[in-house]
Every structure is written in C-alpha cells, then in structure tokens.
Design brief:
5-stranded mixed beta barrel; about 450 residues; OB fold (Dihydrolipoamide Acetyltransferase, E2P); Alpha-Beta Plaits; elongated; alpha+beta; single chain
Length: about 450
C-alpha cells in the first residue's frame, strides 16, 4: 500500500508539470491493478531558488499494488514525461511502503515516521540537501531514485535526483500539516501545449462567483484576471482551488473552453500559510516565512519600479542579534505585482502597530546586508489617530508661535500661551485588521483571508 512521490520534473522553458507527471503515474498504477486513494499536492519552501515556479511535489496514496512495482511504474513514467533534457531539471521519486488504508492524517496513528514529518515541515522553511533526503529515506527503508538524470548530470557539478527532497517531503506531509485544501486541475491535450489557452472568460467568472467563498482565488475580480489559468507553458488548462472538493469540481466543470483531456483532484497545503512561523524583528533567518509584530518606523516610500517600502521596528528594541537598534529594524516590501495592496501599505504611518507576514530575505545593498520581508499580508493592530501640531490661540484661532527653545508656544497678538504641541486628530484611510495581496499576486501556500480563522477582522480581496 505504498506512497509514491515525485518532484522536479518540469522546466521553465519546456513546460511540463509535476502534477501532470503524477497524474500519468496514477493512471499507470491503476492499469497495474492499483487504486489511487489520494493525491497530495504539497507546496514547499517558496524561497528555494532552484524551483521552477511554485515549488510543488506530489504524493499518491495507492493500494492494491506493491511498493516495488509502484517504484518501477513511477521511474518509468517520470523518465518518459519529465523535461529531463533541461539541465536544471533533476527528477526524483520516493516510494514509501506504508499502509495508507487507515488515516495517515491522524496525528497519533499515522503510518508516517515522525522524522519524515519533521523533514516535511522543515522543507517549507529551510533549505535541505539531497544527501539528507537520501539518508532519511534509506533509514526508513523507502525506495528512492534519481530518474532520467540527463538533467542532473548535464550541468557540471549539478546534483542528481534533487527531486527526492520534495518527494520525501510530500511523503511526510500528511503527518506534518493539519490544514488541507483542494485543487481540481484540468489538463490540456498535450499537442496544444505551447499554444494560447482557450478558456471562456464569461463562464469562468460566473462559475467563480457561484463557487465563492468555498472556492477562492479562481479569478481576480477587480483586476479582471483569470488567476486559475496559468501563463507558463505546460499541460495545465486551469486549477480550481477551494475548501471543498465537490465545489472545486463543480466550478471546473462549469468553465467552458478547449477540450479537457484529463483532470484530477488534489488534496493540498495551498492556501494554508504552512510556510509561516512566529518570528521577531532582528532575529529572522534568510529564506524563511514569518509572522512578525512591530511598529511602523518610517513613512512608506514608493521606489523605482513601483515597489513600496516601509520600515518596521521591533516592539522590544535593543534585543536583536547585536543588541543594537539597527538589528531591530525590518524593511517590509510590497512589490509592484501586488497592485492595489500597495495602497494599504502606503496608508501606514509611523507609530502604527502591525503584524506582518511574508518571506524574509537578507539583501546586500550599498549599506550592507538589509533585512527585508516580502509582504503577503499584514494586520493593523493599532492606528495612530493623532499627530502633534502647533497649538492655535483659543482667543483669535490663529497658530501660535514658538516662544523659544523648550518654552512652548504663545500668541503674539493675544498673549495666550501653551506648554507645547497639541495632539490633533488625523484622518486615516486604513481599517484595523488583516489586509492581503490580491488573488493575482497570491503565493500558492499563502492563506487567503476569506478562508477565515484570523485573529482580527479581515478585508478579503477577491
Ligand atoms: P513544478 O511546476 O513541477 O511544481 P516547481 O516550481 O515545483 O515546479 P521543481 O522543478 O519541482 O520546481 O524544483 C524544486 C526543487 O527543489 C525540487 O528538486 C525539490 O526537491 C527541491 N526542494 C523543494 N523544497 C526544498 C527545500 N526546502 N530545500 C531544498 N530543496 C528543495
């Protein structure tokens, strides 16, 4: 009753897609007498540089076929379909002979070893090596293979079978994550790949409306984009995501367009924020996702290219790595493709208290390494509602003048005085609670606000 997992089968230029290859593996396992009970589409660390696009791996839970046969079918199918002539493609497969007839998601009775579950969790927030994946797979008696390794061997010094990292993480995923969503993926006829996709926009937008909010990120209503239709070459026609498999299938079935050659429903960790962990400004790792609390420390600035930057300081300054103030600052960035989300970031003011979510990156710029958070969403906890202003004279209503350094203000005409600046209300064009990037800028693993479960009011984008 094996778990059959594959990864790293596609190429940015040549297309292909690991979910497609896995779907073909599933068909062949069924032909060999197997029954595919579940298909898991597992997103891994979005910060991994060598990913093709979305850093996804797939695991199939199969019964009725033994692990050895399943491993042969997986290797042959991956070798046949993977874009292995691309030197950056490095396919890998892992087959775990574990009983998936029970409930592999049960945290107490899971057939998945704890160490493999831990590996899956780390694969979302760290950079792991093939050597570690291979060692762990062998420790637990899992079969593993570097498949059709023309790619892996094609580039001097390239790693072979790097896909085994993602494949092993996909094996461990059921015991690693407790929030799961669905995606119904419909595939094109293979000979159409590379040509423009024909999807009927009217039926798509209507189906997306019908399915919302159970089905989300199908379209970006405001921008008018079909988010579920990929731009990259490859066999996917559309992928419909949501909280319920039946609802996703219904939306997919209602979308008109070119013929769908095959389709499959995956259980996924997409839309779950599985990549985020609590962190503290001044104490964040490079290439990991965080939720961090802080106070806005600079006026937001729109830089060249339309990226919006804002500095955030730790709520507990002086406790960073070097104990100094600079270590306790983080530059949050809303990149240009996040579109209207940048208006929410621009509406922040120094002193606002926020929680930021995104991937942390240490960037080298002219002034040395800079701690940057690529914003996916943020919560406004407390808004600054007043600003210090020069007092007005209670008698004549005109602005007072400074009475000299440290001596407050006074009205030259009336002789009235005030001890210092006064707090004046400021208009704020930002609501308390969670704000997010629009669906068209969403990372696969990022949780849309519409899914709920947040600790403050939400302002979902759709
Ligand atoms: P696809 O469209 O097929 O899903 P992709 O964007 O997932 O493409 P891949 O071609 O699968 O990209 O490349 C990702 C590679 O990174 C795989 O070899 C995978 O094993 C590896 N990988 C995944 N997570 C990690 C990690 N945390 N550390 C190091 N390598 C990783």
């Amino acid at each position: 009753m094996p778990i059959v997992a594959v990864d790293d089968t596609d190429s940015r230029e040549q297309g292909m897609c690991t979910t497609y290859v896995a779907t073909r593996v599933a068909e062949r396992l069924a032909d060999a007498g197997g029954r595919v009970r579940r298909r898991l589409l597992v997103r891994l660390n979005p910060a991994v540089k060598h990913k093709t696009r979305g850093n996804a791996a797939v695991a199939l839970h199969v019964s009725g076929v033994d692990a050895e046969r399943a491993a042969t079918v997986a290797s042959e199918t991956v070798a046949e379909f993977a874009a292995a002539s691309d030197p950056r493609t490095s396919p890998g497969a892992v087959v775990a002979d574990r009983d998936v007839d029970g409930d592999p998601f049960d945290p107490t009775g899971s057939p998945i070893p704890d160490a493999v579950a831990r590996f899956a969790r780390r694969a979302l927030r760290e950079r792991l090596s093939v050597a570690e994946a291979v060692e762990l797979a062998e420790e637990h008696g899992f079969r593993h293979a570097a498949v059709g390794s023309a790619g892996g061997a094609g580039e001097a010094g390239a790693v072979t079978g790097r896909g085994r990292i993602g494949a092993l993480a996909a094996v461990g995923a059921p015991a690693a994550f407790d929030d799961w969503t669905f995606e119904r993926i419909s595939y094109r006829e293979l000979d159409r790949c590379g040509t423009p996709r024909e999807v009927d926009a009217e039926s798509l937008f209507a189906a997306a409306d019908e399915g919302y909010p159970t089905v989300w990120d199908t379209v970006d209503r405001e921008a008018g984009n079909a988010v579920c239709v990929p731009n990259a070459p490859g066999p996917i026609l559309h992928g419909i995501r949501g909280d319920d498999a039946t609802a996703c299938r219904a939306v997919a079935a209602a979308v008109g367009g070119e013929p769908v050659e095959r389709a499959a429903t995956f259980l996924t960790n997409q839309g779950t924020d599985a990549h985020l962990a609590p962190g503290r400004v001044g104490d964040l790792r490079d290439g990991a996702g965080y939720r961090v609390a802080g106070t806005v420390a600079s006026a937001p600035e729109t830089k060249r290219g339309g990226h919006v930057h804002v500095d955030v300081a730790s709520d507990a300054p002086g406790t960073g790595a070097d104990g100094g103030k600079d270590a306790d600052r983080l530059r949050a960035v809303a990149f240009a493709p996040t579109g209207r989300f940048r208006d929410r970031v621009r509406a922040l003011r120094p002193g606002d208290r926020v929680t930021l979510c995104g991937e942390h990156e240490v960037r080298d710029d002219a002034n040395g390494p800079e701690s940057t958070l690529k914003l996916e969403k943020f919560a406004v906890r407390d808004l600054v509602r007043t600003a210090p202003a020069v007092p007005t004279c209670p008698d004549c209503g005109r602005s007072m003048s400074s009475a000299g350094s440290g001596q407050g203000y006074r009205c030259r005409d009336c002789g009235t005085s005030a001890p210092g600046k006064v707090a004046e209300p400021v208009e704020r064009d930002l609501e308390a609670g969670w704000h997010e990037v629009p669906p068209s800028a969403r990372r696969h693993v990022a949780k849309p606000l519409v899914r709920g479960g947040f600790d403050a009011p939400t302002h979902p984008e759709r």
